[in-house]
Design brief:
three-stranded antiparallel sheet, DNA-binding, globular, BTAD
Length: about 1000
């Protein structure tokens, strides 16, 4: 949460929702604690600061009472040193203001003020001193803003009238008046301030104000045109606000700042903008020297002199010294800023020139741009990488790359905007062009003759596509290929060899992979490529990984193709990842599971590239090994679509696959495709036998769960029991745990809840002992459902929360969303609607963060149920309609959307008093769930059917329907408040003495569904 003190005291939750704090004294306590966030404040200090010299007779208890009231909305804890407000300094606007002010971001800092500081708690003894200090810092910030920015006479006059004795403010106003040619008015301000200081304080004006007065008398502050020696800015500047602030901060501390980054990152434009905003620019003391066209080191000084509009002749052997003397003379006349643009191709000469110049001119600052550092003493580096790009998020408008593309697109194609028809293409363009400004500008320029979709479709041929740059730009900036070639030409032979070989790694690589695949003992060459902005380095689990931007990698791939080395390097690459996955795959089911997942996450793009390449080249054994080495990771992470498509493609390689792998992949294919009850019984039995006879069942532990479940889903209960027994006898402890997990599933289906609980607990204990979090989370989810059905909603919530914690630790996106979904529904069933809403909001935010639109369907379903149980029927109806609109668009849940909507609409109709309409919707759900033989879903629908009959006033039929639900599941869901209410009023149903199949036929008949 965030606390605001720069105005009335307010609190907001993380999502911006206002929080009601309470009465005046509670607000005083919050404000006082917020002035020391995250640190304990002694009890005696709080009593003094809240009540002063007249504390209540029982002050400690009074303070404790205030703390108790504040704890309802804010995290306050008692620690040895006193009471502590558990929030970070960044969450209090006072400290955000101070940080922004220190960084020179004065506009942002001052926007935080909403009135007088501590406006509604100033009666507290502590408030006056604190408010006075804060008001002083606000005034100082406003003065700083005028000092570094435009002098606004009207605003300065208003401030001066409020604070007539502030001499710095008076000096700023005098400068502003003189800049407008109003010298007499400025002198009048001085006379007025001098008189007030003498009359009220008995002092003379400060030396600083006297100096301003003298300068005004001499006419030195009159309006003067600013000499702008920077390149003409023909386009708006978009993004890079953080970088501009960082550059300003660095220039305030260091005399040499170098912007380092790859070609096309926008270093020149950024340096120009930073120089234009520097205070020295308004004084005409900024120079810009473009070095891109300089070819020889001895010509560097002449190029800089050209920026000064000076020249020199005479003896060529003496030109460098003469040029340096004249440059130092100009720059030494006052504080100066020199921009040296494009130093990389003259890096040694540029470093020597800059070092010498900084030594000779003490009041000089240099802002350089280069693809590698100058590497001289005192240099501060500012890395300039790509603009921020969207990564699956629904709202992409705030990303820097998107903002730049839209700005340039609207310039060449007025009316172009971000909407449903363009957002996917814009997202893809920004991502695949790495957020690199030049590439984005070249792509936007193509809108003169292409649609945005046509641009997207041609990104694989980016070097032909992106050739429409400005005719006035340097030749190397007119096409994307020219940008990359400029960097490539600066590499040594050894650097070129490693750079082109690195193209085989689409996901980057660590040093070991690079040395195994590309070049032994590669570290020094690799770091040289990093220095020259050909390769980026990022930290992953405290280990560096090296990657190329996609555009550079595409160019490097061309060079690798033409070198004749491609087949050898690609072969090494694929074999390396076969060995890596073979080494890590068994560890995905052990206590090293998180470590293994980290490796797979880092290497996923490389593994997929190796697998796809092996499939395309029909390297059957290699493809099968790579798939076997990564398949289980995909299942744990919930990447089912990739798993399914890869299994299909590997199986298409045909008889060349080893029999055990064919059987294993067929089993996985069947179980991924099977909804409950829909796997073909004969086909499933054959595949299971193939797994046994080929030895796959013994070699692949994952089959310990897959084979029993495949038999169970194909309605072959005897075969399922056989496979459970086989897995239970395995020497692999994980296989034995999986067998117990599958057994508990089957026992629930058979109505043996006690036996299922024993098997489930045994599976959980084994998974925990092994260290497999995935198996533990799966078992916790099953146990939570079981506990919920007993009516223990709170117990189920505790289990779901543990399951969610594990899912987040595993970074299993689908599991995390589903755990939050079930948590939200369970809170709603408990009646804690606020907690249910919080879980839904957290699930929505998580889905937005991971960019998974498919998973948003089940979040909407959970939200509808939460709103319905809270009595917000209208909102639940809106959500149901939205879910139905996605019936045909969801790849993952499309077949279930109709069923879910039918259940929602039936419950909505009951809530609105239309039970007959609800009956028709329930019939649809009965048909869908019974056709799938999905016992858990079917029994819940039958309980809903009972609710329909109950709402119709047909109590006897309602009780009969509850009895049928009890037969189908084996018991009623007493965690559902609707079921609890019916049982409380109708009594528990008597045992019916019929089979599940008989109960199912009766339910279908009651719903009007024919079995003919």
């Amino acid at each position: 949460m965030r606390v605001a003190l720069l105005g009335p005291t307010t609190v907001e939750a993380d999502d911006g929702t206002p929080v009601d704090i309470g009465g005046a004294r509670v607000r005083m306590l919050l404000a006082r604690l917020a002035l020391d966030p995250g640190r304990p404040v002694p009890t005696t200090t709080l009593i003094d600061d809240l009540w002063g010299e007249q504390p209540p007779s029982d002050a400690p208890n009074a303070l404790q009472s205030l703390v108790s009231r504040l704890r309802k909305v804010c995290p306050v804890s008692l620690e040895p040193g006193g009471y502590r407000l558990g929030i970070a300094t960044e969450d209090v606007d006072v400290f955000r203001f101070e940080r922004l002010r220190a960084a020179g971001r004065l506009d942002e800092a001052l926007e935080l003020w909403r009135g007088e500081a501590l406006a509604d708690v100033r009666e507290a003894p502590f408030a006056e001193v604190a408010a006075t200090r804060l008001d002083e810092t606000r005034l100082a910030a406003e003065e700083d803003r005028f000092r570094t920015g435009e002098l606004d006479v009207a605003a300065l006059t208003a401030m001066h009238e409020k604070h007539p004795l502030r001499e710095r403010l008076a000096g700023l106003l005098m400068r502003a008046l003189c800049a407008q040619g109003r010298q007499s008015d400025a002198l009048h301000v001085y006379a007025e301030v001098r008189g007030r200081l003498a009359d009220e304080l008995g002092v003379d004006p400060s030396q600083e104000l006297q100096d301003v007065h003298l300068a005004a008398l001499r006419g030195e502050l009159g309006p003067r045109p600013v000499v702008d020696r920077l390149p003409v800015r023909l386009t708006s500047f978009v993004g890079r606000d953080d970088e501009l602030a960082e550059i300003a901060g660095l220039l305030g501390q260091a005399r040499l700042v170098t912007l380092v980054g790859p070609g096309g990152a926008g270093k020149t434009r950024l340096a120009t903008e930073a120089a234009a905003r520097h205070p020295l620019h308004a004084k005409g003391r900024v120079w810009f020297a473009a070095l891109a066209g300089v070819r020889a080191a001895e010509d560097l000084a002449g190029a800089v002199l050209g920026a000064f509009e000076l020249s020199f002749g005479g003896d060529p052997m003496r030109r460098t010294n003469e040029g340096m003397n004249r440059i130092a003379e100009v720059l030494g006349a006052g504080e100066s800023l020199l921009v040296l643009d494009n130093c990389e191709h003259l890096i040694t000469a540029a470093a020597e020139f800059t070092g010498e110049l900084l030594r000779r001119v003490p009041n000089l600052r240099v802002l350089a741009t280069s693809r590698e550092p100058l590497a001289i003493d005192g240099e501060s580096l500012c890395p300039i990488g790509p603009l921020s790009v969207p990564d699956g998020q629904a709202d992409v408008s705030g990303f820097g790359a998107v903002r730049l593309f839209l700005d340039r697109a609207s310039a060449v194609k007025p009316g172009f905007r971000l909407d449903e028809s363009t957002v996917d293409d814009v997202r893809q363009i920004c991502r695949r062009l790495d957020g690199m400004p030049l590439a984005l500008e070249l792509a936007a320029a193509r809108l003169r003759s292409m649609t945005v979709r046509q641009i997207t479709q041609r990104l694989d041929d980016r070097f032909r596509l992106l050739t429409s740059g400005s005719r006035t730009a340097l030749p190397r900036q007119r096409t994307l290929r020219a940008v990359v070639e400029w960097s490539w030409d600066l590499l040594s032979e050894e650097e070129l060899r490693l750079a082109r070989r690195l193209a085989v790694f689409p996901g980057g690589a660590d040093l070991d992979a690079i040395e195994q695949v590309c070049l032994p003992d590669a570290l020094y060459v690799l770091t040289s490529l990093v220095e020259k902005s050909i390769v980026d380095v990022v930290e992953h689990e405290a280990e560096p990984r090296y990657r190329m931007l996609e555009t550079i990698r595409v160019y490097a791939a061309e060079q690798l193709e033409s070198s004749g080395e491609k087949d050898e390097i690609v072969g090494r690459f694929r074999r390396y990842y076969r060995e890596l996955t073979a080494r890590w795959e068994p560890l995905t089911r052990t206590a090293r599971q998180i470590e293994a997942i980290n490796v797979y996450e880092a290497e996923q793009d490389n593994v997929v590239a190796a697998l796809r390449g092996a499939i395309d080249d029909r390297e059957v054994e290699l493809a099968a090994d790579l798939l076997g080495g990564t398949f289980w990771y995909w299942l744990v992470k919930g990447d089912n679509e990739r798993a399914e498509s890869s299994v299909r493609d590997v199986l298409a390689l045909g008889d060349a696959l080893p029999p055990d792998l064919t059987a294993t992949f067929r089993a996985m294919q069947l179980i991924m495709a099977a909804a409950p009850g829909q796997a073909d019984k004969a086909e499933a039995a054959q595949v299971i036998d193939d797994c046994v006879t080929s030895g796959a069942a013994q070699k692949h532990p994952s089959l310990a769960i897959a084979l029993p479940m495949l038999a169970f889903l194909s309605q072959n209960r005897d075969l399922a029991r056989r496979e459970v027994q086989r897995a239970s006898a395995s020497e692999d402890p994980w296989a034995r745990a999986g067998a117990d997990w599958a057994l508990s599933f089957m026992l629930v289906d058979a109505g043996d809840f006690e036996g299922a609980e024993v098997a489930r607990d045994r599976a959980y204990e084994q998974f925990v002992a092994i260290g497999d979090r995935w198996g533990s989370a799966m078992t916790l989810g099953m146990k939570a459902t079981f506990v919920s059905h007993t009516g223990d909603n709170e117990g189920a919530i505790a289990l779901y929360e543990r399951g969610l914690e594990v899912a987040l630790e595993l970074r299993s996106q689908d599991d995390a969303v589903q755990q939050r979904w079930r948590l939200a529904v369970e809170y709603a069933r408990l009646g804690d609607h606020a907690a249910a809403e919080r879980e839904v909001a957290a699930a929505e935010q998580y889905v937005r963060d991971i960019g998974n639109d498919q998973m948003s369907i089940i979040v909407d379903y959970a939200k509808a149920e939460v709103r319905l149980r809270a009595g917000d029927v209208a909102r639940a109806r809106e959500l149901s309609e939205a879910i139905k609109q996605r019936d045909t668009t969801s790849i993952v849940f499309g077949s279930f959307v109709t069923e879910w909507s039918a259940v929602l609409d039936a419950r909505i109709a009951i809530a609105e008093g239309r039970p007959d309409e609800a009956e028709a919707r329930v019939a649809t759900a009965v048909g869908a769930t019974s056709d799938r033989s999905d016992i858990p879903d079917l029994s819940a629908v039958v309980e809903l059917f009972a609710h329909v009959r109950y709402a119709q006033g047909r109590r006897r039929e309602a009780l009969r329907m509850l009895g049928l639900a009890q037969v189908i599941r084996g018991r009623l869901d007493l965690g559902d408040p609707d079921v609890r209410q019916m049982v409380a009023e109708l009594g528990e149903p008597e045992p019916l003495g019929i089979t599940r199949d008989e109960a199912l036929r009766e339910v279908r008949a009651e719903a009007g569904i024919s079995d003919s």
